[in-house]
């Protein structure tokens, strides 16, 4: 029972409107979104990858902007990890290798996410979004496990 991000943002907006003295701007908001979307897209795609990624980025922009409007200023955003290298994904490949399609979509999203975050940081006063690179971190652990 995954609660859609749009519902979570709406619930937060409602909470903030009810708690007038809540210090929204002093809190840190952590985002780890997109992984389920990519998994669902790969198993059930009806649009092109470009259209799909555009929709994901548009939604990300919308959610950040909505939260900003109610006072949120500090965000930690995890990019999409190497989904194709998760144990479940590797079971799908007959050789146990990482699923390229999943990793390519995650990489494309992450590449487009960085300039969007830079743009939001510049356009919205006092906004601070830090992007954490989980894709490369996970992939490095998988490819160089002995170093960990």
Automatic annotation (TrEMBL):
Pfam families: Lipase_GDSL
Hydrolase is among the record's keywords: yes
Gene Ontology biological-process annotations: lipid catabolic process
A molecular-function term among this protein's GO annotations: hydrolase activity, acting on ester bonds
Alphabetized InterPro entries for the sequence: GDSL, GDSL_Est/Lipase, SGNH_hydro_sf
Annotated Gene3D superfamilies: SGNH hydrolase
UniProt record similarity statement: Belongs to the 'GDSL' lipolytic enzyme family.
Name this protein carries in UniProt: GDSL esterase/lipase
Species of the source: Taxus chinensis
């Amino acid at each position: 029972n995954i609660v859609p991000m749009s519902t979570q943002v709406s619930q937060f907006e409602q909470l903030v409107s009810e708690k007038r003295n809540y210090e929204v701007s002093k809190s840190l908001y952590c985002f780890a979104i997109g992984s389920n979307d990519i998994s669902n897209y790969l198993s059930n795609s009806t649009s092109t990858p470009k259209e799909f990624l555009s929709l994901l980025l548009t939604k990300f922009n919308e959610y950040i902007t909505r939260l900003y409007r109610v006072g949120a200023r500090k965000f930690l955003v995890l990019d999409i990890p190497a989904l194709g290298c998760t144990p479940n994904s590797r079971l799908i490949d007959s050789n146990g290798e990482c699923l390229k399609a999943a990793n390519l979509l995650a990489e494309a999203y992450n590449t487009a996410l960085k300039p969007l975050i830079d743009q939001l940081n510049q356009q919205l006063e006092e906004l601070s979004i830090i992007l954490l690179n989980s894709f490369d971190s996970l992939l490095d652990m998988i490819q160089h496990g002995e170093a960990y």
